[in-house]
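Help!! Second protein's tokens look totally different from the first
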Amino acid sequence: MLTMNPLKLNNLLSRIVADNDQRAFSMLFDHYHTRLLNLAMLFVTDYNIAEEVVSDVFFKILKKKEELPAIEKFEGYLFKMVKNYALNSLKQRSKERLHVRIDEIEDYMLPEDCNPEKKLVNKNLGEYLNQAINDLPPKRRLVFKMVKDERMSYREVAEILEISERTVEVHLKLAISDLRKVLQTYYDEHRDIIPLSNRGFLSLFL
């Protein structure tokens, strides 16, 4: 979802603070809900828990609406709150590992056609790549998901994870390097079926 126009955002926040405008709050909620839910699910794999995290964040905002005018970079503030609430939720449930899931592995697939061999390659590749992503170190995997799947900028990721943009770039490059090695192995095993050059195959996914 695109960033909200600053003037519109300021208008909604002003209406919430000054008039307790429920319609303005609903518009704010609707605009950010899906993206914040997707962000929460980068940290927790349970949809209901992610929904709870996002709801808690919006409840907190509504409860302390008088503080909204003093918040700089409201969107970054929202993202950080979701991150912190999600991590706290994990701690409360005694989770020791950070779990990340792939929802739409089809994004990484070869174009579909009626060739049964290619369909089998797609199915196997999805499982192969999904496992490779899950095997990445937690921070590396998280950065990859946020940049590639959520289409976040380095700056957004850096603000949410409280690291430098350079560190984001390093994590992403390492993740891509790891996955390219996995894909290279897959290509070598299926080069007779995959109708792309080695370079084309690797660039298609990463």
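Here's the second one for comparison:
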Amino acid sequence: MIKIGLLGLGAMGTTHANAYEALKGKIDFKITAITDEDKAKTAKFAALTGAVIYDSADELFEKANVNTVDICLPTFLHFEYAYKAVQKGLNVFIEKPLCSTSADAYKLAEAAEKQNIFTQVGHCIRFWDEYEYLRKVYKSREFGSLLHAKFRRLSPRPEWAWNNWYMQTNLSGGALFELHIHDADYMLSLFGEPKKIHAFANDAKEKLSSVIINCEYDTFTVMLEGSWNYSLSFPFEMSFIALFEKATITYSSIHGIKVYPEKGDNYVPVIEKFCTVTSDKVANISSLGAYYNQLHYFLQCISTGKKPEKATFLDGAKTVEFIEKEKASLG
């Protein structure tokens, strides 16, 4: 049995907990241990799952009956606790970004490679159904060659985090590292690294809170926009527009996905979804879909003994390195 210790029950930890609840009966696993500073949250989750509560991650590592950990701690704590878990020979699923710096990320990836363990980063967009549809049609050339793509991620200020750490750029890296990184990672996973990048930032309210990146490839261009500079009443939206030779595809988390062919009427493509469970309103998350998908993939890899090939630690390190390049290009 896969015995999981869940570290952190903030926005992402709660989302993962909900996804595990939806995964019950699909794979042989159990949440056996949890830790978080919010005792009310841990008590509630322990009552639901039967998990043992630990006062700290270190205590969980030392005493808990686990062979796997799911790390949903703030990014600036990722390296410390992921490295400890790896050294103890535990399987590790960790929220994105893998680490705050590429140096730590590559060190962690190298350490994990030396152990006979399973590891994965929570780059959930790689598992998002509509983004997977875009990947499929790009690879198959169903609509011809790609000419241009634009990815946007716009959010109200994330003031829901523990001790407001998202809004402290020295701890989070700002929207560049915590929000925009989703689209950067997806771009890298689908197209590889661009030949050139041109990055711009608007620091009117907070450093690195709003960024636009133009990326050049051999035969097409990609624009990424990420901002959490919007007022608290502003609705979160992630979206893309992909212009192909024979069609344009649009997606919005508010309005859905649609294909506009060069000839014929526009239509909503049929996309198979493995999880349609809605989520309690946590942060900007309304559906468990991609979170369910990525954790199902990770647990399935452990169950079958096949190492994850999607969102690996090495992938996560490369993405952090790319974000650092973007930051450096801002001057």
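Reply: Different proteins will give different token patterns, so don't panic. The mean pLDDT is 93.
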